[in-house]
Design a protein that fits this description.
By secondary structure, the protein is mainly β. The chain is built from three helices and 40 strands. β39 and β40 form a beta hairpin.
Length: 536
């Protein structure tokens, strides 16, 4: 008898662990169905969301899914998967479900919901139904401070919310990918006090126009610590195409000014604003391989945040709002920021980038073009036209580069992704390219590698006293050598001089340098090369 009960218990376990596929069809479904087949599909996604358990998948068929009341979301997700059994919301194969809303959110993830994937939806907000004059005079605006704030002017495409006044827990381990999100009056994708988010391969455009909350295309606000991992990337924004995200309505808290409308913003991960008590976020954020263009604010803006890596992005003609002067990619009041391998292409009346009140920030191997002459030089900076194939402010823009672009082969391998925006393997030529795309061309015109100096790694490294550096010249050239700390301060410099072709050796005394990381930089007439040096 005991063995029978053991077998019965095991059988029950396997039954309970069986994942369920739910089906939803706005065109033919009914919420009184069981949702277990296409023929018996639910009508609303919410009906499935209220039933999901770990490992379940919700397949959504063609149709237009809308909010049921002015202040409602189309879908509210509060049920969690597990680390090994995520809950997935996905378009049914060969179907293109449309989420169309004039409420607060298309999808909202609250109450600590975790291990959730949202994949393959088109999400359209209410902007096409809003007149700017009415938005400027909405409740809560600078022109009309009183009244109840209305969802129809402020809705977000997808939102994760952990703030205690809205949610009973902090969302974490969320994946948002392969969605098209546009015309949302608020953010395209927004996160408040969440952790472990991956936002990738989305097209996000024309969002943020009419909100009073200063939203952007993608917003990470006050990240929350799920755990203490400081090694791996916990917030990842990669391979997204973003344009036309901007604000037309002033933010009342500025006071009454337009300050945002960025493509991507990482905002207050130090958790200093609005009485936050959750403490500074210690995780790393990786913003990589994104195309960000035509934003009202910066393409990528890091504000009062820490531990952010901005690598291999392409930013073009952002800062469309007249009063915005932050740069194409910038950080302010932030710490431990690396901005590397990015293309900055600025409007002629705007700065390429800015650097305000930051600590421990590195600009390295970036390519600058355009702008009003105001920029932060950084390390290994190149200046030149990236030679985009078809740059524009439309969805059809092509920011791959033509042959002879200075972006080709002139990036750094450090922190660079393994693939580019299109999934092509990096590097493809003689080195890593700068920007979101890896070209099949090699650098055979501008910045010709065969004519450049070859800087070898210093030895010993780590250095304790004296260390040796070597470089080789294929022909005589004027060379300068300098050493910088991680803040970009020059700590050792050798006079510029003419060197003959061949191998040259320098012995450097590092005894007066503090322990830490440094950059050895060699500059020739047609290229800048660098190596990382550790001082013990």
């Amino acid at each position: 008898m005991k063995e029978f009960f053991v077998l019965l218990s095991l059988f029950g376990f396997f039954l309970s662990a069986q994942a369920t596929d739910y089906f939803v069809s706005d065109l033919s479904g009914n919420d009184s169905n069981n949702g277990l087949s296409v023929a018996a599909a639910f009508k609303t996604i919410q009906r499935a969301a209220d039933l999901t358990l770990p490992g379940d998948t919700v397949f959504v068929l063609n149709g237009t899914y809308t909010n049921s009341c002015p202040d409602c979301n189309v879908v509210t997700i509060s049920r969690s998967g597990t680390q090994n059994e995520w809950i997935v919301y996905i378009n049914y194969p060969n179907n293109a479900p449309l989420i169309q809303f004039d409420g607060w959110q298309g999808f909202q993830i609250i109450d600590g919901a975790a291990y959730i994937e949202i994949n393959g939806f088109t999400i359209v907000g209410n902007s096409a139904n809003v007149i700017l004059d009415s938005a400027l005079n909405q409740a809560g605006s600078c022109n009309n401070p009183g009244g109840n704030i209305e969802a129809k002017y402020n809705g977000n495409g997808i939102q994760m919310h952990g703030l205690s006044s809205f949610s009973s827990g902090y969302p974490h381990h969320i994946s948002i990918k392969n969605n098209t999100i546009y015309n949302c009056c608020g953010a395209g994708i927004g996160s408040v006090q969440s952790d472990y988010l991956t936002i990738e391969k989305n097209v996000i455009y024309n969002n943020g126009w009419y909100t009073i909350f200063g939203s952007s295309g993608i917003v990470l606000y006050q990240n929350w610590n799920f755990d203490n991992d400081t090694t791996n990337y916990r917030m990842i924004i990669r391979n997204n195409k973003m344009y036309g995200n901007m604000n037309y309505v002033p933010w009342p808290g500025a006071p009454c000014a337009i300050t945002d409308g960025n493509g991507i913003i990482v905002d207050d991960s130090k958790n200093t604003q609005n009485g936050s008590t959750i403490g500074a976020y210690h995780g790393k954020t990786y913003i990589v391989n994104n195309l960000v263009y035509g934003s009202g604010g910066a393409g990528i803006h890091i504000y009062m945040s820490e531990h952010v890596r901005v690598v291999n992005n392409t930013a073009y003609y952002n800062q469309q709002t007249p009063v915005i002067l932050n740069g194409e990619i910038d950080a302010s009041s932030s710490n431990d920021i690396i901005i590397r391998n990015n293309i900055f292409y600025a409007l002629t009346n705007k700065p390429i980038n800015t650097n305000w009140n930051n600590t421990n920030i590195i600009h390295d191997h970036n390519l600058y073009w355009g702008g009003n002459g105001s920029f932060i030089p950084g390390l290994n900076t190149l200046t030149g036209n990236p030679k985009f194939i078809n740059p524009s402010l439309t969805i059809d823009a092509d920011f791959q580069v033509n042959s002879g672009s200075p972006a080709i082969d002139n990036g750094s391998a450090f922190l660079a992704p393994d693939v580019d925006f299109n999934g092509a393997v990096r590097p493809a030529g003689n080195g890593y390219d700068i920007g979101a795309f890896e070209s099949s061309y090699t650098s055979n015109q501008i910045f010709n590698v065969s004519r450049s100096a070859l800087l070898e790694q210093n030895y010993p490294n780590p250095a304790k006293g004296f260390t040796t550096i070597k470089f080789n010249l294929p022909e005589s050239a004027e060379i300068s050598i300098s050493i910088f700390d991680v803040l970009g301060n020059e700590v050792i410099s050798f006079s510029t001089k003419e060197y003959s072709a061949g191998e040259h050796t320098y012995i450097i005394d590092t005894q007066n340098l503090a322990e830490g990381s440094y950059i050895i930089r060699l500059q020739s007439p047609d290229k800048i090369e660098s190596r990382k040096m550790i001082k013990n």
